[in-house]
């Protein structure tokens, strides 16, 4: 019994360690600079886009307007900020419902076929794709406890992010992706 308890205690300690999410050196600084929401002392400051890319601050593409109601509904059903889900869709597919990436990701939220299957959605059905993408993003937020890490997991996969956090993997995550989505979310929030 002691061995089992010790094993359970070690497993619990490992889960707690992952829950604290001590990101690798420099990751928090990168995200802070990207979102520019706090100064060196951690005091909240007015957020500004990290890059001066006009496209990120521009109005949404025309294709977006057809999907905004469905994006909002999927976001609300899954407890996600609608601007965050809109920014993910903008970054993933530019609001093109039949987009298929070179890696095989499908639809508005660019779900991989295995992920879509595990979520029980048809990735080619735009409404199901949005719901599946929102649900998957919610799962990543719940798993990693931070939106920036959840976005990294959405983009690079949760195994890579977990490996980066525990030091077992040196595979870099897409910091550019995280910054782009957060900047677009911020831009969308400023326009609503």
Brief synopsis:
By secondary structure, the protein is an all-alpha fold. 60% of the residues lie in helices and 0% in strands.
Key attributes of the depicted protein:
single chain, 192 residues, mainly alpha, Lysozyme, 10 helices, 60% helix
Polypeptide structure, described:
With 192 residues, the protein is mainly alpha-helical. The protein has a single domain, classed as Lysozyme (Orthogonal Bundle). Helices cover 60% and strands 0% of the residues. It has helices at residues 2-20, 27-35, 54-57, 68-77, 82-93, 113-119, 126-144, 147-156, 158-166, 175-190. α8 (147-156) crosses α10 (175-190). The N and C termini lie far apart (58 Å). The relative contact order is 0.14.
CATH fold-level label: Lysozyme
CATH architecture: Orthogonal Bundle
Question: Which structural class is indicated by helix and strand composition?
Answer: mainly alpha
The SSE order reads: HHHHHHHHHH
State the total count of DSSP E strands: 0
Which word captures the global form? globular
Biggest beta sheet attributes: none
Distance between the termini: 58 Å
* Beta-strand content bin: under 5%
């Amino acid at each position: 019994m002691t061995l089992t308890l010790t094993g359970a205690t070690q497993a619990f300690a490992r889960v707690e360690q992952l829950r604290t999410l001590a990101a690798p050196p420099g990751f928090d600084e990168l995200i802070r600079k990207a979102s520019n929401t706090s100064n060196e002392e951690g005091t909240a400051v007015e957020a500004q886009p990290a890059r001066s890319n006009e496209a990120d601050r521009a109005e949404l593409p025309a294709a977006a307007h057809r999907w905004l109601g469905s994006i909002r509904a999927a976001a609300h059903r899954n407890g996600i900020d609608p601007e965050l889900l809109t920014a993910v869709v903008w970054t993933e597919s530019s609001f093109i419902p039949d987009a298929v990436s070179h890696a095989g990701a499908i639809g508005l939220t660019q779900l991989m076929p295995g992920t879509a299957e595990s979520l029980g959605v048809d990735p080619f059905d735009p409404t199901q794709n949005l719901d599946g993408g929102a649900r998957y993003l919610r799962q990543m937020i719940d798993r990693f406890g931070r939106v920036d890490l959840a976005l990294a997991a959405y983009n690079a996969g949760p195994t890579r992010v977990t490996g980066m956090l525990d030091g077992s993997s040196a595979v870099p995550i897409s910091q550019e992706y995280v910054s782009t989505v957060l900047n677009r979310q911020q831009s969308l929030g400023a326009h609503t």
